[in-house]
Amino acid sequence: MNPLQPSPVHAHAIANWLLACLVLVALMVAVGGITRLTESGLSIVEWKLVSGTLPPMSEPAWQAEFDNYKHSPQFLKVNSGFSLADFKGIFWLEYLHRLLGRVIGLTTLLPLAYFAVRHRLPRALLWRSVGIAALTGAQGTVGWLMVMSGLDNEPRVAPIKLAAHLLLAFALFCLILWTRWQVLGATRPCAARPVARLARAVFALTLLQIGFGALVAGLRAGLTYTSYPRMDGQWIPDGLYRLHPWWINHVESVLTVQFQHRMGALAVVIAIAGLLWAGWRHTPLRATLRHIGALALLQFMLGVATLLSVVNPWLAIPHQLMALALLAALLRLVFLTPLDANQQRHRIPQ
Length: 350
Hints:
Blueprint: H1 8-37, H2 59-69, H3 73-77, H4 84-117, H5 123-149, H6 159-183, H7 193-219, H8 249-252, H9 254-279, H10 286-308, H11 313-336
Helix pairs in contact: 1-4, 1-6, 1-11, 4-5, 5-6, 6-7, 6-11, 7-9, 7-11, 9-10, 10-11
């Protein structure tokens, strides 16, 4: 029995609520990527959860916002020649990003309160939904901490905080997606235990690779070594561990961070190829495996194209969203291959 499955009368409405949350989180990932690529994320130097909902409504209000920005490291060290019109250009993207965060918060909390008051959520689903709401709040909090890291001395956010911000968004998406499958009563055909374990390992490896990609974005490492497959004419570039202590190279060295992202991409492709080989004999899994293989190949090609284009936004944003789609497909496979043999079923979730 699925303890998260509500009454059939209410399941459709709850599933639609979760679907709306999924769409908004995916949109948030895209808008966040655009904000990062245009370096707009540091344009609003204060966090006003309520009063900041509305943008400046008059010229004096705009000038006051611009004056606050003039004290930031980004203005002093990078954009000192900005006019008010230039400032408005980057302000609107960060404002949209924050406004969308507020919309996600309300879309999560208000229906949750309604369903809870009307007793339409089983106890397990209620606690899961509270967990989703808490993770949504944590995502916003980490986002502000990330912005604060770029308002101190250097006009860039801390790469490790950017990675945490992105990974929390992906974790939130996956938790909502998994919950929606359970709400719809999707059953789980159990494959052989080695396939189930391999699916989890590949999922974890892909999540790690997404974190590596966020570090690349935080350091702007994609703008430095723009050839492929070699880096600066070398298969293994010199200077991978020049920083001390050695471990800091994995989060602060432009060279090492880009190299590990390249190697991570190859590792994910090889691991997915092994996953397809191991799971292909399980007929109920083949459709999902096809999706995973196609998405992995497309994601790899997008990554290379993004690098060769010196991080063209029209390639970089699809590359980021494709990572979300690939992770969702791998999560689907994990869902379909429970380690508990007692959960064997025959219907694949839609």
